[in-house]
Fold this sequence. Notes:
With 425 residues, the protein is α+β, with helices and mostly antiparallel strands. Helix content is 50%, strand content 16%. Strands 3, 6, 7, 8 and 9 form a five-stranded antiparallel beta sheet that branches.
Amino acid sequence: MLRLLRTRPNPYSLGARVHGSIGPGPQIIRVHRVNIRRKWFKPRNFIIAGCVYYVCFQVYKTSVLDTLWAWLDQQDEQLTKKEREEMEEDMLEPLFIPLPFTTKVVASEPYRSTDPEWKTFIRVNKNKELVRSIQHSLAELVRKTTASSSWLVQRYGSDMRLSRYWLDVQYPNRPPPVIVRKGLTIGDDGVSITEEEIDVVTAVWIRRALWPKTLSLSLWSFSGALVRQNALNFARLLGYEQDSTSNSPFQQAVEKVNQKLKKPGTESDTKTPSSLPSADKQAADGSSTDPTSPVEKRSAESSPATGSAASSGSGASSPIPIVPSAEPGKPKSAKDIYGIKHTQEHTSGPWRAFKRKFAQTWRPIPDQPPRGAIYVSGLVEVHTPRAIVIVDTEAWWDPKTEKFDTKTASFTLRSIRLKTQTATR
Length: 425
């Protein structure tokens, strides 16, 4: 039973094993790897290299270093005694190397009763005339800002008068917060980690450079719009058109209105051929039987070369106009050669999406008010010839300069009430 499961020997292989191989034996190729060692130490090469380096160093020293040292000596001789002292003080100051991602906002300590800022608040609060002048100056500033708006002037008139205002004067309990960052300080005492105050604008620029949120969102919108546009173009090449039934009801209503507006023109066009005599009637009257209209004949007579070229090129009855890509006597520009113009046209839609997203996410850099400033906020009413404009106002008055800080001032349009209102329908 087990002999049936045993495989049978191949007669061809058995004959080869008995008689041996008839063909000639294969040729054996042996490959030997040989490493050629070169003599690395050659005194002549070292001498030549040393001479070349020495000549290059002398040329650099004579042309650059000597000239720089001579200029520094001249500048040092022209320095005054005060400038020398300032330079020595700067050299004695320790070197500060900031560390990234260590910026933080620290709240300032409240004012004390002995601080000069608090004493100024008490002096301003007791002077009622000064408080009223601060409120009136802010209201006048709002009126001037409103009158400088071209949009408001065009819609509601240029004669703007200050009517009423409701402004509150507030004295802050503490100065604005301070922004600090950590860093390595290298000085005479050694190396240590310390904190240093920085400006608000500098801190915001550093944060936006390390974390560009606005640019990232804008680039994401650009890439998404470009991918969608390429996908639609590829689907259109394959024969898939966008379904017109997927339009919104508003778009469908607009299309219906456009069709109704186009109907009178189409009806007049359809009535025009019916008033003309037909080709059969002209043939019966003895006229020409050529179905070509006089307008087509006139156009064919004015451009015979174009018609002959089109008729010879194709068997169609109506010639196809050929629009040249560029003027014959004008050379092609760099945009036409390298495809820059085509690329700009292709990316015009994504570029609009980039600018729209950038305008939505970009915010101006906020600035902090000066130390000891007084906060004034409220509503200002401005009368125009055709409307009443109410502006929401926030500003800081600096007692040192006795002026408002325009960098931190904020004027927001609250409401517009028309003096004469009519029905919109």
